[in-house]
Amino acid sequence: MRERAEIQIPFVAGAVVYAKDVERVGHFYSQVAGLPVVHREQGFQVLQSAACQLVVVATAPAIAAQITVESPPVRREDTAVKLCLAVSSIEVARAVAAKCGGELNGPQGEWEFQGDPVCDGHDPEGNVIQVRASVL
């Protein structure tokens, strides 16, 4: 299935997330970070706002076969990169993440960075993320 947005948003900055279940992981990021899907093809989705592009790509079958996604997912904290996503409210993002198969730490796990509240969590496949609610 190929779906393309009618409005083209210029690329500013972004990241790529590999996933066993592109639809589920793409839905998670779309809902939690408010990133609309602007392009979709078999094996990947492009989510994009004016400030960020996130591409969710299907993990290669040979690698995917070696990955077990548990329920609930176990955080994969042994990685050198953590996505940081802008949200309007950590409390709202926490509730949405839970409905979409991920999790954000509870309020006791929040802290402040550069004047903004932040919180860590994970997506439905255990990839570690951070959300940041701008107070501007």
Describe this structure in words.
The chain has 136 residues and is an alpha+beta fold. It contains three helices and ten strands. It has one domain: 2,3-Dihydroxybiphenyl 1,2-Dioxygenase, domain 1 (Roll). A hairpin with a 5-residue loop joins β9 and β10. The termini are far apart. The mean pLDDT is 91.
Mean pLDDT: 91
Q: Could you name the ranges where pLDDT drops below 50 across 5 or more consecutive residues?
A: none
The structural domain count equals 1
- Architecture, according to CATH? Roll
Regarding quaternary structure, what we see is single chain
Beta strands, count: 10
The CATH class name reads Alpha Beta
Overall SS class:
alpha+beta
What is the helical fraction, as a range of percent?
10-25%
CATH fold label: 2,3-Dihydroxybiphenyl 1,2-Dioxygenase, domain 1
- Per CATH, the superfamily is 2,3-Dihydroxybiphenyl 1,2-Dioxygenase, domain 1
Terminus-to-terminus distance:
39 Å
